[in-house]
Design goal:
Layout: H1 4-7, H2 10-23, E1 30-36, H3 43-53, E2 64-70, E3 75-80, H4 82-85, H5 94-105, H6 109-127, E4 143-144
Parallel strand pairs: 1-2, 1-4
Antiparallel strand pairs: 2-3
The structure holds calcium ion (2 copies).
One calcium ion is lined by residues 24, 28, 30, 134-137.
Length: 146
Amino acid sequence: MSKVEDFLTSEEEQEIVEAIRLSELNTSGEIRVHIENSANGDATHRALEVFHYLKMDNTKLQNGVLIYVAINDKAFVIYGDEGINKVVPENFWDSTKDAMQTQFKLGKFKQGIIEGILKAGEQLATFFPWKQDDIDELSNEISKGE
Ligand code: CA
Ligand code: CA
């Protein structure tokens, strides 16, 4: 069993935080990453729980996106808030999921998460461009479960 602490080195974590920061320079969307060992059930259900626990529904445009990763389940979920779902096509996250899946299959977890963040940022920028008065509404730090 791998542990959350062993999943990424602190350097890798910093690269992920930096990818979030860079992505948010192009969009008003707010991206967060949560990593834990297991969803203990349905990953999508758990991602929704984490989304609310992290108060990610607390953005002005309701455009927060959670990239949820359950290490031992080998599962991940991209969960976007209502403001996003209202305006984007149904297959909106497909390219982001594909980019992550490709790297994860190669065992490249850091790279997968980073590509997911960058892709999500690009996707969001189309519908939620960065604005002059942008503030960092949600922390860019990685959230870790048990
Ligand atoms: Ca922002
Ligand atoms: Ca942020």
